Amino acid sequence: MNRVRLLFKQYHPLVWGILFGSMFSRAASFMSLPFLVIYLHQQADLSPLMIGLIIGMGPLTGSFTGFLGGHLSDRWGRKVVMLSTLLLWSFVFISFSFAQHMLLFVFLNALNGMCRSFFEPISQAFIADITPPEQRMLVFSYRYFALNVGASLGPILGAYLALTSGTIAFFITGIIYILYFIVLLSLVLLYPIEEEANAVTPPATLRSSFTVIRQDAALLYFLLGMTLVNVAYAQITSNLPLYIGENLSEATWLYPAILTGNALLVVALQLPLTRWAEKKTITSSMNIGLILFSSGFLSFSIGSHWSIFLVGITLVTLGEILLFPLSSVYIDQLAPSHLRGAYFGASSFRSLGFFIGPIAGGSLLQFIDGQFLFLAVSLLSLTGILFFSLGSRARDNQSLKIAS
User: Fold this and answer.
1) Rounded distance between C-alpha atoms, residue 113 and residue 62, angstroms
2) Per-residue b/e over 294-330, b at no fewer than 16 CB within 10 Å?
3) pLDDT in tens, 270-287
4) By the 8 A CB rule, do 347 and 66 touch?
5) Closest to 89 (Cα-Cα) out of 74, 73, 109, 103
6) What parts of the chain have a pLDDT lower than 70?
7) What pLDDT does 197 receive?
8) Smallest Cα–Cα separation from 155: which of 33, 250, 56?
9) Would you call 101 helix, strand, or coil by DSSP?
10) What DSSP string describes 40-73?
11) DSSP state, 197?
12) Measuring CA to CA, how many Å separate 8 from each of 1, 5, 17, 21, 174?
């Protein structure tokens, strides 16, 4: 009990509010969004390509709005933008439960992508603002841990609701986001923070922020590498359930088990692997993660039995544990303090992979086959090693210029 009390005192209450809020909101979104693919396929009778277009619209919007959200948070403060976004996000999920027309699904998923691109980078920048630098790797790992606790719970309830009502899950998700807004607002009022660290005189303009980021070669290489990773990762929530349905139609339990197993493995292995990664450079840990990640998708491509799919998701999970939390640390180390929001927001450009992935994957699944699809994304994600290495070299050169 004393250790738990000491742990809670280690970070600001708002950090814990975001961590627990992220856990419950992720559980809610994983209760609904992964099953949108199945709902559109069964109820709307759409092709894999059309489903890919709808699913990909959210990440496409997020790719181009994340930088704007991060910039606004640098100018107006993280709290204002985070709270406003949560309120809008709750409206989006509630509206999903009433949507009938394909165009409305496209519009709502575009808004969903915008809200995600605003809230997630800004909340990470806010955590970095109020956490000492030496504790940030661990707190970002706690955040990823919390997200996956939620992701392990959501599909269980989502699988049940998908059999009864495909729309009620979205309504419940919207209510949970409203509760998250209320809790975060209460914490902001109880523990006021002056966001002086974000203020710049004169404030950085949108154009000047973009110019700084455009000239940061290390960031650009990192974004290219992570975009390829996201092209592959997008298959899990877009084309993997359709691929499993074609090859193992009798194993209706397999896809929910893959989602839940993925999250449970992250919960079990996140902290031990983070401790291990702390002893290595960020680039080497991320490259090891890429090899594991790519091997998992290669397993999917040869999957003819449910056990091979479980091996595949295990390898993918080990890779993502090393890739995703460390990517937040990488961005934090690159970003000047007064542009932290803009840098975290710019990292949303990698979400372009979540737009390209469902569409390109849906095309390959529809016109070639699933085996070729997962072989292709396995090789594609592996090329991220090249971009991470180039980014590491550019970062080292930049450090040498600053030192001289």
Assistant:
1) 5
2) bbbbbbbbebeebeebeebbbbbbbbbbbbbbbbbbb
3) 888 888 887 888 888 889
4) yes
5) 109
6) 1-8, 34-35, 38-39, 41-45, 48, 155, 159-166, 194-210, 212-213, 249, 251, 398-404
7) 42
8) 33
9) coil
10) HHHHS---HHHHHHHHHHHHHHHHHHHHHHHHHH
11) G
12) 11, 5, 11, 15, 28
Q: How many CB atoms lie within 10 A of CB 47?
A: 13
Smallest CA-to-CA distance from 159 within 169, 149, 150 is with: 169
Q: Report whether the peptide linkage leading into residue 48 is cis, meaning its omega lies within 30 degrees of zero.
A: no
CA angle 364, 369, 371 (to 5 degrees): 105
Which tokens hold the place of 246?
């074609």
Cα distances (Å, whole numbers) of residue 162 to 166, 238, 286: 5, 16, 36
pLDDT of residue 202: 47
Which stretches of 77-191 are DSSP H helices? Answer: 78-96, 102-129, 136-164, 168-190
Task: DSSP for 173-241, please give it.
Answer: HHHHHHHHHHHHHHHHHHS----GGG--SSPPPHHHHHHHHHT-HHHHHHHHHHHHHHHHHHHHHTTHH
Q: Tell me, what amino acid is at 74?
A: D
pLDDT above 70: percentage of residues in the chain: 85
Secondary structure E strands in 189-254: none
Yes or no: say if 81 and 184 are a contact pair by the CB < 8 Å rule.
Answer: no
CA distance 99 to 302: 37
pLDDT of residue 34: 65
- Asked if 365 and 377 count as a contact pair (C-beta separation under 8 A), the reply is no
Containing H/E element for 31?
A: helix 13-32
Q: What is the pTM of this model?
A: 0.73
Q: Take residue 386 and report the two structure tokens written for it.
A: 């090249």
Q: Give the amino acid at 326.
A: L
Placement of tokens 């590491």 in the chain: 392
Token couple for 175: 């209510």
